[in-house]
Amino acid sequence: MDNSSRTVVVTGFGPFGEHSINASWVAVQELKKLGLGNDILHVCEVPVEYQTVQSLVPSLWKKYHPQLIVHVGVSAMATTVTLEKCGRNHGYKGLDNSSFCPDSQCCVVGGPDCIDSVIDMESVCKRVAATGLGVAVSVSKDAGRYLCDFTYYTSLYLSRGRSAFIHVPPIGNPYSGEVLGRALQAIVQEMLDLLDQAEGKIHCQHVH
Fold this sequence. Notes:
By secondary structure, this protein is of the alpha/beta class. Helix content is 39%, strand content 20%. It contains 5 helices and 8 strands, in the order βαβαββββαβαβα. It has helices spanning 23-34, 50-64, 121-130, 147-159, 177-207; strands spanning 7-13, 40-46, 68-74, 81-84, 86-88, 114-116, 137-140, 163-168. The strands form 2 sheets. Strands 2-1-3-8-4-7 form a 6-stranded mixed β-sheet, with helices on both faces. Strands 5-6 form a two-stranded antiparallel ribbon. Strand 1, helix 1 (23-34) and strand 2 form a beta-alpha-beta unit. It is globular and about 45 Å long.
């Protein structure tokens, strides 16, 4: 596959609760300034609202036909940049910015309980650590059952796993927006390379 043709959408979230400035959107805007080399990057700010997510995520897939969508969210508890392995369907009780939560408390009625990303987050973590970026990166299996997890599951369901989710700590705790932007750049590039390799293997299997 020609590297110049890869398209990625990266989303961050708007303000909510005590996060009047959402570190995820700050980090995504820093990534936008840095770019992804030959790869095409589109960024989008996502409101912290379940119903908006349900219409916005499919529209991003339809509009851009990306190789990958990476969603970024803030976690007040995070001290590292955290790669989420999977999204979960049930347990959405927290009210969003419109004081709404789904009656079913799930993302997709009848969908699987959990969907894993096709990207091996442990590999991404190791590769990024090896670049000496100076940012701690870890892997998690629980994206928190709020808008982050809801968005991730919705995207994984639509893309059959071709999505990723990254949690970032609040700005200055310990990283600046610029440092987080650089970390996102490194992580997204590793994710794209891993996807390319996986697809290369699939094509080889078809040939034999």
